[in-house]
Amino acid sequence: MATLYPIFIDFQSNLTFQELTNKQLIREQLMYEDMIKSFEGIWTENGHDIIFAPKLYKVTDVPCEIIVLEDLKVDGYQMMSKKDGLDLEQTKLVLSKLAKFHAASAVRLVKDNKVINHCFNRVATHVKHLPDSPIISSMQRLFNKLIQVAQTFSSDYSDKMTQWPLDILMDSYFDVAHPMKCGFMTLIHGDLWTNNILFQEDSDGKSIDVKIIDYQISFWGSPNADLIYLLFTSVMDDVKVKHFDEIIEFYYRELRMSLEMVKYGGYIPTVEELKDDLMDNRMYANQLFPLIIPITRNCSSTNLEIKDLFGGNLTEETLNAVFMDENVLKVIGSWLPFMYERGFLDIKCKENCKAK
User: Can you give the residue ranges of the CHK kinase-like domain (predicted)?
Assistant: First the structure.
């Protein structure tokens, strides 16, 4: 049995839909046929049988761009509810597999540093949008709507958020595509949320393994890019707030152990360096609030898709429906106090940047 997965759109580009689709098809095919196989091979060489993703059976562009993958449902793998989110044990299971993925990618980079100079280099392969482009206009409207919602919780939050320059928010998409200050970097999944993670359960209903799909926007960068994305989009609201530090420290222990297990010869960052890097990339987390949360956590009958942003087709009716969705409001309401107290809402400007 096989499962068909259509190719979606990378929103941070000025290319046409067809050009984008072709580029993503190439990237995902490379991930399955080259990168993931090599990562699994690195673990095999070190005596461990680690599988990160389903097998790739076929890539075709007829009648449209489609990737045919192994049907994981046969082995009991399934998606969790995006409305409910992942509990602490499920989150740790994902992070354990993610740490192994990151560690193997770091080894691959040491063995072949030329691997960074192809389509997984986000900075080199993406073009920033012009100020008058449809997606910038859509992002501004999403941002303004988020501020309105935040104000209903507390003006302390909205006052902080009105100081975020939109260009800094948008640039954070590229900022995470750089190594940590210590030089450490890994291959990033880039879209690590509930719908791209499949869980296998035992007879008692306990999650025992995960496999990850949809590598269309993978890139080299800070491992915190995946951590931030997973936490913001997929973890139960009370879990991510109550166990935030525990989750970050768990991932670090898993990463360090994995790097040692695959005999990584480069510098291994400290947990303090990982946490500092996470805060350095907080504007990436803030970007996910208006852009990704309404898509990944919206459970209303009104669907917001990336293509709506890309084409500038956002209606006021859609915006109101999405941001008034009970689940989206729950996410925003749980995160804002935590982000405010932790300093996530404080503006992070680049050199010579002035808050407006």
Answer: 67-261
Summarised one tens digit per residue, pLDDT across range 109-130 is 999 888 876 678 888 767 677 7
Cβ contacts of 298 within 8 Å, gap of 6 or more: 304, 322, 325, 327, 328
Question: Which of 142, 127, 131, 216 has the alpha carbon at shortest distance from 174?
Answer: 127
242 CB-near residues (< 8 Å, 6+ apart) = none
Q: Which of 135, 116, 120, 118 is nearest to 15 (CA)?
A: 135
Spatial CB neighbours of 271, under 8 Å, sequence gap ≥ 6: 248, 249, 252
DSSP labels for 222-286? Answer: -THHHHHHHHHHHB-HHHHHHTHHHHHHHHHHHHHHHHHHTT--SPPPPHHHHHHHHHHTHHHHH
> What tokens appear for 78 in the block?
């399934």
Confidence of residue 106 (pLDDT cuts 50, 70, 90): very high
Cα 205 to Cα 21, 76, 113, 170, distances in angstroms: 38, 11, 42, 41
Length of the chain: 356
- DSSP letter at 162? T
Position 3 confidence tier, pLDDT thresholds 50, 70, 90: very low
Q: Token pair of 181, please?
A: 């200050």
CA distance 156 to 161: 9
The C-alpha atoms of residue 285 and residue 278 are separated, in whole angstroms, by 9
- The pLDDT tens digits for 287-330 are 988 888 888 888 877 777 766 666 667 788 888 888 888 888 98
> Is the preceding peptide bond at 165 cis, omega within 30 degrees of 0?
no
pLDDT tens digits along 34-93 = 999 999 999 999 999 999 999 999 888 777 778 899 999 999 999 998 888 999 999 999
